[in-house]
Amino acid sequence: MGFLRSALTSSLLLASNAAALEPIIKKGEKLFTESGKQFFIKGVAYQQEAGGGPGGSTDSDTKYVDPLADADTCKRDVPLLEKLGINTIRTYAIDPKADHSECMALLDKAGIYVVADLGEPALSINRDSPAWNVELYERYTAVIDNLGQYDNVIGFFSGNEVTNNATNTDASAYVKAATRDTKKYISDKMAKGGRWMGVGYAANDDAEIRVNMAQYFNCGEEEEAIDFWGYNIYSWCGKSSFTESGYDVQVNFFSNYSVPVFFAEYGCNTVNGAEGRLWDDTTALYSDKMTGVFSGGIVYMFHQEENDYGLVEIDGDDATPMKNYKVLQSKLADVKPSSTSMAAYNPTNSPAACPAVSKNWNVADTALPPTPDSSLCDCMYKSMSCIPSDDLEEEDFGAIFGYVCANDAEACAGIKADTKTGVYGPYSMCNPKEQLAHVLNSYYTNQNKASTACSFKGQAQLVSGTDDASCKDALSKANAAVAVAATATTASDAAASTGGSSTDESGATSIRAASVMGDMAVSLYALVALGVGAGMVML
After folding, report:
1. How do residues 267-298 score in pLDDT, each as one tens digit?
2. Does residue 224 have an active-site annotation?
3. Which domain holds residue 468?
4. Would you place residue 61 in the very low, low, confident or very high pLDDT band (cuts 50, 70, 90)?
5. One of 29, 161, 410, 434 is an active-site residue; which one?
6. In CATH, what number is assigned to the domain containing residue 499?
7. Would you give the DSSP letter of residue 361?
8. Do 302 and 237 share a structural domain?
9. pLDDT at 18 over 50
10. Residue by residue, what is the 3-state secondary structure of 92-153?
11. Model pLDDT, residue 503
12. Which of 29, 102, 120, 265 is flagged as catalytic?
């Protein structure tokens, strides 16, 4: 259905709420309703178990429960959300194959918008082995298709605290690539009758990287940059203050930011005392000290769990508001943020320069990983003469990658990804089996197609690769990018060698972004992605 509602969905929404919520749009650093009133997020995180935040599970084995797919649960909870005084919920994982129409209609009727994370525990960008590939792209765009049909969806997070310290800043390149591609996906839908929805990122508050993170996701071409910045911050604890909490520092820093900023999670509970959570941070967030810069925030969290951040106690079919709920309800009822109209507002801020590569920042500013393209991966695989054996298990791929890349670096150029130099191979976005086929075939070709070069003790096999005319142009451009990758050491080298070509109408991967070399010894994408050591394999 994409962004256009089906007749069934429309009738459900119209029956429940004749005056649907206005879509939210952004202008400069602020959010507005479609009719031009400034919009401040008054939100709460709404997801059990698989949510983010302190104590929230991010384990890939976690089985998440879609909070918007159970109509009975929504009928129980939405009245409590409405009475709390919020206008937005954040979900961390939804099932893109599920029907959300009834829950979304209930939220719409209650005046509540949704901001949704695009990943889920088993399918999201992993900070320890980051990738942006076809499988992830299909997951993220499926979520957009599913939720994009509802006017009360503000937008999406392409990642949540993926980079969380200076040791894994390389993961940010993949999240920004995901931001670029999901923004384009939405933009293409808009051109066909859709509407604006933003794609942002939710960052943690780490002193070593917070400035670089905020600048990196906001810098460069607008098509690649975030639409809004979510900040997960828990620095106001107990009887704190605007300055003691460091909120004044945040306001000062983001006063020059060029997109809307809001707290994607907030609400420290480490200093509770007998009074519980005081929610003085909520009062400050919607005061004149902050509303000129921040567009509100999302409290962590609705459900009471072991981490003790909850507002509502759940017991089977019963949901009981806790003291923390009632205090927050009172605070939200009292806030009256100063606002401006969209017509009267003229943005003046512009993005800062991208951060330079440094000890605490391992990401070049000049290029991003390539856009996932399943057709290119399929074309490449079908054209190979040396591929993995049919019975080869994925857990055994790593040793073969390790042997080939250690002995023939050129054979691995097409799958390499080096965030520090900003050059990427055109097949770095393919699945592991497709990548292994490319590496095996390249090694086989470089060994003058000796039959022994496609053996690996029976783990590789010779086949008759097919020449598909529809694949010719895409493979030609990708192969040119691989050739450049054999010598390029920076993204600018790759761009200069190829003329800085971008994706053409056939969907071929950008030559500029799809070139690679880097340090073969330390940046072996396939091994990192598989989490397997680089063992040696005898031919």
Report:
1. 999 876 667 799 999 999 999 999 999 999 99
2. no
3. 374-530
4. low
5. 161
6. 1.20.58.1040
7. B
8. yes
9. no
10. CCCCCCCCCHHHHHHHHHCCCEEEEECCECCECCCCCCCCCCHHHHHHHHHHHHHHCCCCCE
11. 37
12. 265
